Amino acid sequence: MTAHFVPLLMAAGLTACGVYMLLERSLTRMLLGLMMIGNAVNLLLIDVGGPDGNPPIYWASSGKATDADALAQAMVLTSIVITMGVGAFVLALTYRSFNLTTTDDVGDDQEATRVSQLSDEEVIAAEPDQGVPVSAGELDAVPESEVSR
């Protein structure tokens, strides 16, 4: 199995740019980063799929000595479908976020900021006792008073 250096370098560059864009606060840039990573994976799969050859169809022949690997082509088609599904989901999240907040930037979480500023002693003091049994009503996400309505 031989892989060409230039497509591998292009896949690495696309992955690096995609990760950089994925770490941004804007949902639109996150979407573009996911698409870049998906394209990098497709390029990588095609590159490591082996050399070109005859089409993987029984009656078609182009005069080459070997047949093309149909598994790499099938994996790329599957990857395209998965990337488009994830892209549609993130696009729906972006649309919903823009409708609610009129921006596509992800803001800071106040609770996460508060927890990150706690000292070790405060974290230990805030942990619940592990041996205390919990009633079934405490595990429900909806309080019992609202369920009976």
From TrEMBL:
Subcellular localization: Cell membrane
Main location: membrane
Organism: Mycolicibacter arupensis
Record-given protein name: Monovalent cation/H+ antiporter subunit C
Highest classification ranks of the organism: Bacteria, Bacillati, Actinomycetota, Actinomycetes, Mycobacteriales
NCBIfam families: PRK07946.1 (NF005929)
Keywords on record: Cell membrane, Membrane, Transmembrane, Transmembrane helix
Family: Belongs to the CPA3 antiporters (TC 2.A.63) subunit C family.
GO cellular component, as recorded: plasma membrane
Pfam families, per the entry: Oxidored_q2 (PF00420)
Chain spans, region Disordered: 109-149
InterPro entries: CPA3_antiporter_subunitC (IPR050601), NUOK/Mnh_C1-like (IPR039428)
Protein's membrane topology: Multi-pass membrane protein
Ranges that cross the membrane: 6-23, 30-50, 70-93
